[in-house]
């Protein structure tokens, strides 16, 4: 599983504060960062890329269907 930028920031903070009395500050910073991230409705990059691929496939299907409808309309006009 890929780590998010917040996870990376948290890991760096943990490294810096390991063994120091500032451990409580780390916990507070982590909670604040998670709270901010949840307010922004952030999604993991992987999920974004999956949704982007689904959108591209859907767009291609719509364009294909539009072309088929246009061809059928043309056939119908020629038949009448």
Shape: rod-shaped
Compute the average pLDDT.
Answer: 84
The span between the termini is: 60 Å
User: How many distinct folded domains?
Assistant: 2
Assess the beta-strand content as a share of residues: under 5%
Q: How would you describe this protein?
A:
- By secondary structure, the protein is mostly helical.
- The protein folds into two domains: 1-42, no CATH class; 43-80.
- The protein contains three helices and no strands.
- It has helices at 5-17, 23-39, 45-79.
- Helix 1 (5-17) packs antiparallel against helix 2.
- The longest helix is centred in the C-terminal third of the chain and has 35 residues, at 45-79.
- The termini are far apart.
Brief summary of the model shown:
By secondary structure, the protein is mainly alpha-helical. The protein contains 3 helices and no strands. Helix 1 (5-17) runs antiparallel to helix 2 (23-39).
Question: Which helices and strands, and how do they pair?
Answer:
Layout: H1 5-17, H2 23-39, H3 45-79
Helix pairs in contact: 1-2
């Amino acid at each position: 599983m890929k780590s998010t930028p917040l996870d990376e920031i948290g890991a760096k903070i943990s490294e810096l504060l390991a063994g120091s009395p500032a451990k409580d500050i780390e916990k507070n910073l982590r909670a604040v960062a998670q709270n901010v991230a949840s307010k922004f409705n952030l999604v993991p990059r992987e999920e974004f890329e999956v949704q982007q691929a689904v959108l591209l496939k859907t767009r291609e299907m719509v364009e294909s269907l539009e072309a088929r409808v246009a061809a059928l309309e043309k056939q119908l006009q020629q038949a009448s």
